[in-house]
Amino acid sequence: MIKLGQGIVLVPGMRVGLLGGSFDPPHEGHLHLSKEALKRFGLDCVVWLVSPGNPLKAKAPASIGQRMAAAQALIDHPRIWVSDVEARLKTRYTAQTLEALVRLYPAVRFTWLMGADNLAQFHRWNAWQSIMQRVPVGILARPGTRMSALHAPAAKIYTPARLPSHVSRHLGMARPPAWCFVNMPMRDVSSTELRREGAWPS
Ligand SMILES: Nc1ncnc2c1ncn2[C@@H]1O[C@H](COP(=O)(O)OP(=O)(O)OP(=O)(O)O)[C@@H](O)[C@H]1O
Ligand SMILES: O=C(O)c1ccc[n+]([C@@H]2O[C@H](COP(=O)([O-])O)[C@@H](O)[C@H]2O)c1
Q: Where is the Cytidyltransferase-like domain (predicted)?
């Protein structure tokens, strides 16, 4: 059985948020999103899926070992964990990763998490509709991207599946397709900015 990651124990019925990302480097925005997601979407834990490399990004990130170590060092919450399972499954596309994880853990309730910038371009992801059909999707505000996200093709096509934010706590148990956008106090931080400042050696 493929384990999600070191020290990660998943039990039947558990509501697990998956935050896929390049984490190149991980930062306060990831942590803040994860803590808000735990509260707002009624999740038991959040797992950071450190990607081998975003298929839509031309430049390769720093090594997975470097990004995993930085993520572990940053996390200060007992229910936020880090996983390199995509590297081990050899899946780069989220649709494939979710298909594999749902097969491996049929009794676990996964929710895909992302910042609003990713909803804006979600319709460009490989087999994106299969993601919507497979798991609930929780979206959290990100500075400057609220409007482009809510007017994006994916948001429009799946309008009937949108859960109002006042019932966001039900998302982790919702039957897909279901998605929910929640506002949160924003953190204007990005990996791009940290790389530009030279705070990360990649
Ligand atoms: N400050 C933030 N507020 C809300 N969501 C965020 C924030 N930073 C990252 N995210 C979300 O976390 C996930 C992983 O993000 P990623 O690792 O690409 O960080 P990033 O800062 O967006 O990196 P880059 O600047 O290199 O694109 C994405 O879904 C992204 O939308
Ligand atoms: O599957 C796809 O086509 C796809 C396209 C773009 C991004 N993703 C995933 O989205 C997550 C966020 O990526 P990033 O680089 O914005 O942190 C990460 O898990 C990527 O693998 C996935």
A: 18-196
